[in-house]
Amino acid sequence: MMTLRVIAAILSLLALTVESRAAGVTIGVVAPQDGTFASLGAQVRAGAVFQIGQAGDTIVPISETCQDNSGQAIADALIAAKVQIAIGFLCSETLEGALPKLKDANIPAITVSVRSRPLMEDSLKNGWLFFRLGPQDGDEAAKIIQVILQQWAASPIALVEDGTIHGRELTEAVRNALEEHGLKAVFTDTYRPGQEQQIGLVRRLKRAGATKVFIGGDRNDVAIIARDAKAENIPLDILSGDAMRAANQPLALADGVRAVAIPEYALLPEADSTVHAMRVAGVEPEGYVLPAAAAALIADQAVQAAMAEGRPVADKLIGTQFNTPIGPVTFTPAHELSQNPYRLLEWRGDTFVPPTGGTN
Description:
43% of the residues lie in helices and 17% in strands. The chain is an alpha/beta fold. Helix 2 (38-55) packs across helix 11 (289-309) and helix 6 crosses helix 7. The longest helix is centred in the C-terminal third of the chain and has 21 residues, at 289-309. It is elongated and about 65 Å long. The model is unreliable at 1-22 (pLDDT under 50).
């Protein structure tokens, strides 16, 4: 949740930016202001307002309700405000209605969160100016597969999952990819989630000879499996997915457990100067704050370059490398990130960090 101090800083920066109306880029920031996603919307606005203020651009904040059929009205508001580009967009419902009108007005839209593959397919087919500053469906599985093939290919591997749709689909994608590369897991199983102990599972893993295990499950189940393996003196290297980015509930995660996850951007070297400046301004770089700041930076630079060259803004978004607080960003002709944003991380102390002695 955003603190009162952060909210005050946002409002102060927003007032200064809107009042100035100085020459520069006019950027729409679409994010929820009320309801279930209000706290996430506050993060988007905090990051965008900070970066837009730094650049001397103009912000046009638009409330996102995330309701069906709400996108057309949002597009109308952006067009009426004469924005040159729009960022934010936490909900696919908004984009579905907004993108056709934004295309007609030549206004690109950059989402910081929507992962829908069908929406991007529709966008490319219809020429909508939709760009994704975040992972797409399949990126998590692709990175997990890459890590396993690079680091575990010579070891006895087990694949276990919790029976949920996400856990099952993620683990099945890994299994299929391994078999395509001639690798077969020595053990596969579906465990019952939410149990107080998983001793039976770790003993079955030992009997199968597994030393590496991928777990398609939530953080608490992974923590329990790691604890029980240690108690039984069963050496297991454990890898899981982005679900590990959750609070201890209540069992602490053991040091050394690895996850393929979106990194804490505030810990990246690329973010150091921005993080420092944000904290001086009373803005905590949590959640979507840094991705939104990155989107605002990209928006400013793309529009400025397009104006200087007399080209459409979307043309300058494709193929250009933008150096942002979340690292270098380049959009492909398919309007996706050129690099998978998931990284291999390892739990140490109280956070996930790049692993020692392992590739990222």
